[in-house]
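Me: I hope this is not a bother. Any chance you could explain this protein sequence and its C-alpha cells? It all follows right here:
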Amino acid sequence: MKIIDLSGEYTEKMWYYGEPYTPYSVKDLACVDKNGYIAREYTLTAHTGTHIENSAHWSENAQGISETPIEKFAGNARLLYLPFSESKEITVKRLKAAGADGLEKDEICIIRTNWDSFWNKKEYVSESPYITVPAAEYLVSKGIKLVGMDSPMIGDPNDGISSVGADLVLPDYKFSEAGIPIILGLVNLSSLPEKFFFTAFPLKLHNGEGSPCRATAITF
C-alpha cells in the first residue's frame, strides 16, 4: 500500500482569494523558554489552501459540513487528465476525450490540469483552469459523489465573486444542487494512476460552508 499526499502546504504569504477572505497567518501564543511548551494561533478561512467546498457555501438552507455524511469524502476515484497547456476551459468534449464516460455512480472524479505548478504564484487564482456549466452538468449526470481538481476555482475566474447575484450561473451551483462536495487546490496529481482510493476529510465545523482538508490517494 502507498499513500500519496495531495494537499498543499500552509505557509504565511501563501495564495488566497483576496477580500472578503483573509490571508493565512500564524501567531505565537506560548514558547518553551517562557511557558514550557509551544502554542500557536492559526488564522485561516474554510477556503484556505487545499479545501472542501460544500453546498452550504452557496445556500443558507443547505446541509453544513458537519452534517454531510462522512462517506462522501472517501471512495474509489478516477483521474482525468486535461492539461491547461491545451486549454484552461474544461468542456464536455474534453472530459469525454479524457475518459469521463467511464465514470461510475458514486465514484470520485479527480481532474488533473497541472495547475498546481502555479501554487503561490500571482496568477494561481486569477488565471486558473475551470469547468464550464455544461461540463458540470455532465459530471453530475454521471452520478459522482465528489469532484476535485488542482485549481483553486471550479468556475471561470473571470466571472468573479462580485458577479454573483445577477443572472450568473456557476458550475459550483450545479454540484451544490446535486449535493456533490468540491475539493479545490489539490497538488501532486501527476503521481497518480488512473484509479485509486481517495480521502479528504473536513474538520467537523458546525454549519460549516467548507473546510481545509488533508487529501490523500491510496494505491495498492
User: Anything to note?
Assistant: The CA atoms of residues 82 and 97 lie 9 Å apart. The domain at 2-9+45-219 is CATH 3.50.30.50 (Glucose Oxidase; domain 1). The mean pLDDT is 95. The first strand starts at residue 2 and ends at 5.
